[in-house]
């Protein structure tokens, strides 16, 4: 009889505790138990759930780190959340993420074709959208674009692949990944630079059928598609910083500048027969647009400008708009 009474009393106590809204929740990292209100637990879960357009600050997060992770600028995060210097963040703080430009995927789009439209690179698009190889896209999918990305206008020119205008060009180069995928912040391209056929001299005749090597060093990135689905339109040659970069053939400098994202200080040299060679990541450029150069002439010095961290030369050979494997056209 006494045992039955104790059992009944225990059941009543449990019912009373449950009706009061208390549950037993283990405390973090101790293995012991601590009592918390069920309403508090619900509130914590509500705070931790994902809310579109926001991010919940974790321990160790910084404004810069969040901007890199989500592909938005530091300034836009500061402005959107009215943050004040020195911009310290607290764990559990919720930040609004500014909605940057997006591209709605159309039928037939590829990550590469989208990168071409917005003058960015495949690596940045894949990273901003957390895409994995083989980077398959679906119609209607929304791709976050890097801050400052602008759609490249459609250009028509019946006589040549390059548009005639007074400003210099990098339109002969596709903004694809051109080196090892170790990127650092670079300046976003401004107005579209273009080659002007009217304002540069006619290229001199070539000295031979093959091009010469532009610098001495080890090839660290070969032409073509990589394992992760990215593509190199040329080759990358590791060399000592400051080493001479030489013209691969007689020609005329069609572009000298650093407007194209990821390529740093770059030269385009136009050769007779519709050939173009490109030299990127230079430390210094020693020739000007419109200047005629000879095969083997020093035109720049090896550096690590643009989207690379180690001294190297990104070198391309193009026939018109089409990149070709430089090793097939370089002399021994």
Task: Please tag this protein with its features.
3 domains; 18 strands; Glucose Permease (Domain IIA); 10-stranded antiparallel β-sheet; elongated; Membrane-bound Lytic Murein Transglycosylase D, Chain A; two-stranded antiparallel ribbon; 18% helix; 332 residues; alpha+beta
Topology-level CATH name of the largest domain: Glucose Permease (Domain IIA)
Q: CATH superfamily of the largest domain, please?
A: Glucose Permease (Domain IIA)
CATH architecture of the largest domain: Distorted Sandwich
Residue share in helices? 10-25%
> H/E element string?
HEEHEHHEEHHEEEEEEEEEEEEE
Summarize the helices and strands and which ones pair or pack.
Layout: H1 2-19, E1 22-26, E2 33-37, H2 38-48, E3 54-56, H3 63-70, H4 74-81, E4 94-96, E5 102-104, H5 111-117, H6 122-128, E6 142-144, E7 218-221, E8 224-225, E9 231-232, E10 235-238, E11 244-246, E12 251-257, E13 265-271, E14 275-285, E15 292-293, E16 298-302, E17 312-319, E18 322-324
